User: Fold ABC transporter ATP-binding protein from Agromyces albus.
Amino acid sequence: MSDTQTRRPAFGRRAAPSGPRATFRQLLPFIFEHRPVLIVVAVLSVIGALASLAQPLLVSQVITIVEAGDPLGWLVWALIALVVVSGIITGYQHYLLQRTGEGVVLSSRKRLVGKLLRLPVAEFDTRRTGDLVSRVGSDTTMLRAVLTQGLVEAVGGAVTFVGALIAMLIIDPVLLGLTVLVIAAAITTVTLLSSRVREASHQAQEKIGDVAASVERAIGAVRTIRASGATEREIRDVEGEAEGAWRMGVKVAKISALIVPVAGIAMQVSFLVVLGVGGFRVASGAITVANLVAFILFLFMMIVPLGQAFGAITSVNQALGALGRIQEILDLPDEDAHDRELAPLAIMVGHANAGLQPHAPAIEFEAVHFAYAATRSDPADPGNESPDEHLPEPDVTQRQPVLRGVSFEVPRGQRIALVGPSGAGKSTVLSLIERFYDPSVGTVRMGGLDVRSIDRTELRAQIGYVEQDAPVLAGSIRDNLKLGSPDATDAECEAVLRAVNLGGVLDRDPAGLDAAVGDDGIMLSGGERQRLAIARALLAAPPILLLDESTSSLDGVNERLMREAIDAVATGRTLVVIAHRLSTVIDSDRIVVLDGGRVIGEGTHSELVESVPLYRELAEHQLLV
Assistant:
């Protein structure tokens, strides 16, 4: 097991804290990215509102003319034209809002994915993959409702509301006063409930993230689960998470159910009050029947945008609940956020790792301490202290120490092997060279330069890194090979595959380089996945190769062929190899023995057998002495 695996949180345990609440101001940048379209929508909304406001006036004129017995003439056609124009505007406005809503979802997903893939590696150690995927999928979808459920339409709605209010004031101030009392009570009710909607929506999205994380965990380990007879237990666990999400969804529905009918109730009460009091005022001669009809039409026009506003409040608060989870990730610092503070003029390492000190070791560790974060008290804490803060040893000890004062050199062009028991810190050494993490104390150098002073992209361009579990990306063989070498030719891809004894994979599938490898490389054997990962690193032809248990999944024949392939490409390159099987590294130029995060011996195989008891014990168990 690698060192990174030993510190993952227990199965099912939430490591990441709940995200902060988002504010409406944080929502505006997502909306204003589509400002031109929204301006068009707002203008259409205003035009539609004016067309709607004109309709009650025309109806009032029609009633007055009919009462007088005069011909209607152009009024009927004008009323029909207003209805048709209003319908066309509404339909086109709906299309623009739906399209813009999809644009908001797209832009938010782009920003979130861009941030996720630039986060420090330590963030992924303490967060669940399924929950992160849920933020990209489910949470971003919630932002669509902001535009499609009334927020932008509120511009036209405001014009309609104000226009109707003025017209009603002119027609009958008494009836308007009674209407305003009913509406004020409705607005007060919605305001009191809106904050509860936001909180419940945030909790519901958290639960959806839990479901996604549980499903991702179960599917990712489906073979282990079935082999262990744990299928039913896992189903119950996932169902439990799904029921939790259902309960939170029901909670949101209950609160929303209190808000949604408020507009309808307000309209009905207002209508009954206006009808009753208005009928009395018509009988008393205070207003005419035509004015009462116009007042009622304006009442309905005022209530409709009020209902839209209530819907907008609900949708915005639900979106803010989801945005809080999105914003939590967007507010995290990128992996290289502090790099310019450490090295304002980051050095760009040249080709073949020439650097500025050609006679310095390719890699050097000087008194390096490192500790993985035990807990996450601050969502913005990437897991390890800032690289420029040299922590004292006591603080390192309190944060799950992995390396304790490690020092060694890797001369250029030599093969150095790291050996030791599981948990000794071997994989962590490679992670520090790659700058997935930075030392808590001490310095890691490449070519005599502190790796923190080298641009990360240039640093990693000098290194070929093969992880212990040799991950394979879903897609084709070509996709995997060209991940780090996008300009490689098919001939180069085939050559490197045959160099690592993967020619049979090409030959057995007519698709050749386009043969699918399946999700996580399931179409390949363990050894083939490992060799494909090595081929990917070799294709980039880096000056430094880091191989973490690169032959652990190979049988004896393929191990020999792999060693021959690595020997062939090792000429003129620096290799740092981790191995449990000492037979694969006994011919290394130098072997570094790690135990408990400390270097306890360095030398050749024969020297270490004589001088380091732990190494001698390992060699004896593997029948090498």
Notes: Residues 173-286 form one domain. The chain has three domains: 18-172+308-335, 173-286, 351-373+400-621. The longest strand covers residues 401-410. Confidence is low (pLDDT under 50) at residues 1-19, 375-398.
